[in-house]
Write a structure and sequence with these properties.
GO terms for molecular function: carboxy-lyase activity; flavin prenyltransferase activity. By secondary structure, the protein is of the alpha/beta class. It is built from seven helices and six strands; from the N terminus they run βαβααββααβαβα. The longest helix is centred in the last third of the chain and has 16 residues, at about 155-170.
């Protein structure tokens, strides 16, 4: 499976890190990190963004429109934007492909490939909701990283594992990152 992971300038880069760690041996990963995300990675994870780059098969700068993944003829299976800033969500919803992250999402939409958007904002205003509805109507999966508590998490890692496990479920990748309902 070929998956493009996009990290944008919103809080919640821990979800992206965990997703990359889990996918490392399960998929070919192309990674794009926005400039704002590079700063947030340092702030929230206290690591250099280059550490996340090591978890990917390929890395592309967000302004690299000559990368292979900038073309619809390049076959990838899914795109995940985690976390997704409202700026990026708006650009995707409105077809404003000013950078590689939005271009790859545009390709996923036009080629009917799996697109998972993980918006990280609250509260949401009507513009945010309208953009999410527009993307959902176009086939994107809108998946805010909202944890559940029925599995009785005992740590922040348990909460992160739940969210990442649900993403893997949507991708069709078997995992046992969390205790499932009723099991």
């Amino acid at each position: 499976m070929k998956i493009v992971v996009c990290i944008t300038g919103a809080s919640g880069v821990i979800y992206a890190k965990k997703l990359l760690e889990v996918l490392k041996d399960k998929a070919e990963i192309s990674l794009i990190i926005s400039n704002s995300a590079k700063k947030i990675i340092k702030e929230e994870l206290n690591i250099d963004w280059e550490e996340l780059k090591k978890l990917a098969t390929n890395y592309y700068e967000n302004d690299d429109f000559f990368s292979p993944i900038a073309s619809g003829s390049n076959k990838f299976d899914a795109v995940i934007v985690v976390p997704c800033s409202m700026k990026t969500l708006s650009a995707i919803a409105n077809g404003y492909s000013a950078n590689l992250i939005v271009r790859v999402c545009d390709i996923a939409l036009k080629e009917r490939r799996k697109l998972i958007i993980m918006p990280r904002e609250m509260p949401l205003n009507s513009i945010h909701l309208e953009n999410m509805l527009k993307l959902s109507n176009l086939g994107a999966v809108i998946m805010p990283p909202i944890p559940a508590f029925y599995h009785k998490p005992k740590s922040v890692e348990d909460i992160i594992n739940f969210v990442v496990g649900r993403v893997l479920d949507i991708l069709g990748i078997e995992n046992n990152l969390f205790k499932r309902w009723g099991i």
